[in-house]
Amino acid sequence: MREVAIVAAGMTRFGELWESSLRDLFVEAASDAMRNAGVDAVDDIYIGNMSGGQFVGQEHLAPLMADHLGLAGVGATRVESACASGGAALRLGYLSVASGMSDVVLVAGVEKMTDGADATQVLATAADQETEAYHGITFPGLYALIARAYMERYGATEEDLAWVAVKDHAHGALNPKAQFPRKITVEDVLSSTMVSDPLRLLNCSPVSDGAAAVILVPLEEASKYTDRPVRIRGVGQATGSMALADREDPTWLDAVAAAAERAYRMAGVGPEDIQVAEVHDCFSIAEVCCIEALGFVERGEGAAAAREGLTALGGRIPVNTSGGLKAKGHPVGASGVAQAIEIFHQLRGEAGERQVEGARIGLTQNMGGSGASAVVHIFERV
Amino acid sequence: MREVAIVAAGMTRFGELWESSLRDLFVEAASDAMRNAGVDAVDDIYIGNMSGGQFVGQEHLAPLMADHLGLAGVGATRVESACASGGAALRLGYLSVASGMSDVVLVAGVEKMTDGADATQVLATAADQETEAYHGITFPGLYALIARAYMERYGATEEDLAWVAVKDHAHGALNPKAQFPRKITVEDVLSSTMVSDPLRLLNCSPVSDGAAAVILVPLEEASKYTDRPVRIRGVGQATGSMALADREDPTWLDAVAAAAERAYRMAGVGPEDIQVAEVHDCFSIAEVCCIEALGFVERGEGAAAAREGLTALGGRIPVNTSGGLKAKGHPVGASGVAQAIEIFHQLRGEAGERQVEGARIGLTQNMGGSGASAVVHIFERV
Asked: What is the pLDDT of residue A178?
């Protein structure tokens, strides 16, 4: 396989972007990335999107987006893996360049969630319809079950979970693209509305609009486009049991652990080598379980990580320096690509106030549903 | 890139399969393919599906399907390109093996269309929501516009279009998996209900449930799985203008022509080398336009091909020996994979009564919407 590098990135602000349609969001991010790479054409496009069909009545996004970008004719593919759609698209872009099929690839993620559909119901179609959604449970409830099981097993507290959100918002306050670029306190979290016990409003990522895009090329061609390419060194994808009830231990994310193991093996590195990471904090408990499955901390020690500063800027392994899904926003199909953009900026030393000094190796972890699908990428400054 | 071969196939019957759910259909076809390949595990799964979300309220199909196949853990990806979803999935499976990322890949297409959703409205989400569907037009109307333009430009008649359906049904009558395995006459077509002038009921492919699956491996490993592998020699994907009104000539399918040109170039063959083909006959007029864009006949000569026997079994270039989408059925996400299965059987000499004698090179062409996305594959008997 050829080595593959990211050479440019572009993204919209994340938020409730009433003035922008699904296609507007895509075109803004994709044009931004192409301008930054200095290209006016690409060989192939891969688009992550969870549910244009249900959110805004639009399937067949690949030709629509290519057309509105002014590139009708190009090969284009839309991929869906619920909230891991962006990560899945990045993996396909990687395969397209690594295989030799394409020399310049645009990978984008996009979601328009605020145009009228009931977001919670649409998102629930990422759960098992026959054994979960049919009985009325939606994702806040599924993650609340995980949180409750975790708290009972490991003695974690609501305050531990609050610290995850506080840490992510402290990071997000430094990110001008974030939906909620402001600090919050533990007291704010603990006094926010209860959504699904023990998860409160400020433990939950928001409903967002947004798009994110990157340009991939063969590493050996990268210097034509930038003097600071970021190599994709490891790629791992995995699945786990779809229904939470089918898992031996609901607090352990099998698919994340398997995807990470594949990415680490391919990259020839371990969790101890990762200097900055973006993980899938759709709910505070998700970040806790993810950093365990990624091997950043031992099982049962994830809940203390934010409170103890381990995962904060300046800590041993800064997690979600972008603000994460919680503070940056979570336009579901875009999130996996936006994660890669944060690591791209970190490894190029252009993350501004939220820069992790000297970061050379970074990781992204994106997942779908209650963790049934997961994609992990490992990046390295060249 | 590594050479890639199909070594096994499996599919359900196509039809109104009330007793089978979306997951049942997938598991039946995938298990069948795996059994035929003699494997009980795969490295990666690629699934084509247009709209599980809208048809049956189920997104996140990749982990769900992997789990129900008994393979939770495996990497799995769902791709959507409207009615070209199956073809797009096959292309991704090809990339996965060609790149060296995977050694044994399951590619499947599946759609469950009869469980209550308004199929015409769901399918219309493959058209441009802002300039087409919003104004009330659905696909029978869009293809009727193409047909009317074609008839006016080239002097084709309703009888010419009827012959396409008659030919496809004559083939489908020989296919035990077909939804409508029976012959029809020109008189049957011309007296059937008008759906959207000039397209009548028997000019339209049906609403169907079904699934189809194939196993891909590196060509050099293929003899471990079968003594008759079929090599994938060319792959082409392209897009065109999403909205019909944006096309210079609505009777000419730009995306199909571009995808075909890429596949022919990669395979080092031309249309004159193709001995059997499955093309996207969602409506009779679609087959007419497709065989022109594929270069099987000159522009304006597509309408006469079925009537003159050119595309029938025994003709110069038999098209849709399976019965095509018209007679075999069109579970939209599955159709692209089912096309590949027909060519797989033809090139292995196991197509029974519908065998094209001595076929060595075959082609599939799958498209989405009114032709805005297209995927072409070229296959060769090894």
From this structure: 98
